[in-house]
Specification:
- The protein has 176 residues and is α/β, with parallel strands linked by helices.
- The protein contains five helices and nine strands.
- The strands form three sheets. A five-stranded parallel β-sheet has the order 4-3-7-8-9, sandwiched between helices.
- Strand 1 and strand 2 form a beta hairpin.
- Helix 3 packs across helix 4.
- The longest helix has 12 residues.
- It starts with a helix and ends with a strand.
Length: 176
C-alpha cells in the first residue's frame, strides 16, 4: 500500500506561494493527466465504501465533480451536484459558510436526495472544512444519511476534519 501512496504523491505537484505568498498549493493536474494514477486515486477513494450501501455520491464544484462521478460509478451509485450560487436551474437549497476572509455559499437541488438515502460526500481536498461542512449540512437537511466523506488530499494541519463532526473521513493522502 505504501508504494501506491508514494506513486500518487509523486503525481502531486507542489507550487509554492500560490495563490498567495506563504501558501503551498498541491496541484493535482499531473495526477489527472496520468491514466494509471487517476485510476488508482479513484479506486483508493472508493474502496472503503464498497459494500456499504451507498446510494448517492455528492460532489462539490468543481474538482468534486471529477472524483465524485468516478467514485459513484465504482460504487454503482447516483451522483448529485453541489454548485456555487446561480448555477442550478431548478428549486434549490443553499448553505453559507465562513472563509478565511469572508463568506461563501453553496447550493444543491432541493430534490437531489431522497429521504433516507445513504450519501457519500467526495472532494479532492479537505483543508479548513468549510466546503465539506456545507455539503454535509445540505445532505442532512434533505434527509440523507451520511455514509462518510472521502477526499484525495487532506491538509491535516488545518483541522478541517474537526468541522465535519462525527462523520467518518477517509483521506487517501495526508499532508501535515
Amino acid at each position: 500500500m505504501q508504494n501506491t501512496i508514494e506513486q500518487l504523491r509523486r503525481l502531486i505537484r507542489d507550487i509554492p506561494d500560490f495563490p498567495k505568498k506563504g501558501i503551498l498549493f498541491r496541484d493535482i493536474t499531473p495526477l489527472l493527466a496520468d491514466p494509471a494514477g487517476l485510476a488508482l486515486a479513484i479506486e483508493l477513494l472508493a474502496n472503503p465504501f464498497r459494500g456499504k450501501n451507498v446510494d448517492l455520491v455528492v460532489g462539490a464544484e468543481s474538482r468534486g465533480f471529477i472524483f465524485g462521478t468516478a467514485v459513484a460509478c465504482c460504487l454503482s451509485a447516483g451522483f448529485s451536484l453541489v454548485r456555487k450560487p446561480g448555477k442550478l436551474p431548478h428549486q434549490k437549497i443553499s448553505t453559507s459558510y465562513d472563509l478565511e476572509y469572508g463568506k461563501d455559499t453553496l447550493e444543491m437541488h432541493a430534490d437531489a436526495i431522497v429521504k433516507g438515502q445513504r450519501v457519500l460526500v467526495v472532494d479532492d481536498l479537505l483543508a479548513t472544512g468549510g466546503t465539506m461542512k456545507a455539503c454535509c449540512e445540505m445532505v442532512k437537511r434533505l434527509g440523507g444519511e451520511l455514509a462518510g466523506l472521502a477526499v484525495l488530499i487532506e491538509l491535516a494541519g488545518l483541522k478541517g476534519r474537526d468541522k465535519v463532526g462525527p462523520t467518518a473521513v477517509h483521506s487517501v493522502l495526508r499532508y501535515e
